[in-house]
Amino acid sequence: MREPDQSLTTYSEMGRGQTVEPCTLIIFGGSGDLARRKLVPALYNLLLDGLLPERLAVLGIGRKPLSDATFRTSSREGVIAYSRQSLVQSLWDRFEQSLFYLSGGIDEAATYDSIKKRVEQIETELKLPGHRIFYLAIPPDSIAPACEGLRRAGLVHAPSESKPFCRVIVEKPIGRDLASAREINETVGRVFDESQIFRIDHYLGKETVQNIMVLRFANSIFEPLWNRKYIDHAQITVSEAEGVGTRATYYAETGALRDMVQNHLLQLLCLVAMEPPNSLDPDAVRNARIDVLRCLRPIRGQDVQRFTVRAQYSHGTVQGVEVPGYRGEPGIKPDSTTETYVALKLFVENWRWAGVPFYLRTGKAMVKRASEIAVQFKEIPQVLFNANPAMPQAPNVLALRIQPEEGVSFRVISKVPGAKAQTHPVEMNFKYGDVYGAPSPEAYERLLLDVMAGDASLFMRRDAVECSWAWITGILNGWEAEGLKWLPEYAAGSWGPVEADRLIQTDGRAWRTL
Ligand code: BG6
């Protein structure tokens, strides 16, 4: 038997063989939370795992007046607090020499001239070849001035074999409806070519999410069953224990549908429902994903009442801690109608999935943090072992646990030992921790590495972003027409509102308890 190839790191490498070259990463929003909690720790972990190019520079750009030294200290604190692997001082001492900071306003033309000067100086000092990645971890209304500023300062050039690469990473939210998403895409597209743009949906970088494709297409037992003939329905749950926390300003304008469903949950759905791509080429994979979005049956107008439930958390206790109701959270208006929970029933109208419901739910301040995709197979005929109709036999369920206890479980029916023909459901359980030991890499590690390698498989193409916004905007418009002044409530620390239970119970099904 051939030895498995364990050296592959990106989809491209699986398919084509790419290398990661020395480059400069310029982070707009460099003094922000994302950089401190996710980006710098991700780079540090890539370094520890020997995956970073041998030379790299990071230039943080932000309004806060920090020096290189204070940026390095704050980055080190970020690594200590949030890194997957602990800080090794000797490695850090070397790594921090590649961290730099420049303060400047995004709206000020002078900022971009300073960036240019600083980047060129750093690249000369560190003997970097001029490959650049601009990371836009900034609010949507800053994207246009940032792109324009970069262009005017001559920091962007068209893709060319003879020039160093120049790429841009765009963080969510990419819009708040179809029109604003198009506007952002237009703005970025005026300055960068689509092949240079990497739109992040960090769920696609999660190890367990990447495993969905492998599980489906690298195992011969699932694919023949993966269709309307054998699957009864699927459930996608992303439940969070945290409330709005310190993000009230952002969240009040956003809500669960825009914040979680438009991107993360729909991308999970795409991976579960997509056809096998014809290769691992980034565009082949992205085409397969977007085809699912194109087949979504619209939920518009009064359909929102039948197919969607939105709700807000009320006062309750989450994991022993008392939580105020959403309307009592600091920074939230007492008459806010922003949803903190949403449940949907949707259909993917194609040959494979016709008639199979997909139930999606996500919420904040719920019982616990737990994300899972569960595929429930059809019942077997009610004869033999389950002849008692009052005691229907539990169906087979394949559950892909995304987080926090990453793994896959499969419910099968087994005989209870003894003289009687009695059956019992049992779980076959695969836990990442048991098999692979160390915690999986963080999503941002994988995604940053892929941008350096130029592999866009795990990023959102413009058409996919707009396609999912088009579908979501139908629901948003339906909700707006309803004009609700009060949303249904669920107690913080519960599994969501009774209305969501009814949504699925009407079909004779139930949400899984995770
Ligand atoms: C972000 C949302 O995109 O994803 C947050 O804006 C949410 O509201 C977060 O908490 C969840 O990500 P994760 O990786 O913690 O499941």
Structure description:
The chain is an alpha/beta fold and 514 residues long. The protein has helices at 11-15, 33-48, 68-82, 89-95, 109-125, 143-152, 178-191, 207-217, 248-252, 255-273, 282-294, 303-307, 432-436, 443-453, 462-482, 498-505, and strands at residues 23-28, 56-62, 99-103, 132-136, 166-170, 197-199, 231-239, 308-314, 316-318, 321-323, 341-347, 357-363, 370-377, 397-403, 407-415, 423-431, 489-491. The chain starts with 10 loop residues before the first helix and ends in a 9-residue tail after the last helix. α10 crosses α11. Helices cover 35% and strands 20% of the residues. β9 and β10 (321-323) form a beta hairpin. It has a nine-stranded mixed β-sheet, with helices on both faces. Strands 3-2-1-4-5-6 form a six-stranded parallel β-sheet. A two-stranded antiparallel sheet has the order 9-10. It folds into two domains: 23-171, NAD(P)-binding Rossmann-like Domain (Rossmann fold, 3-Layer(aba) Sandwich); 204-375 and 442-505, 2-Layer Sandwich (Dihydrodipicolinate Reductase, domain 2), CATH 3.30.360. Bound molecules: 6-O-phosphono-beta-D-glucopyranose (BG6).
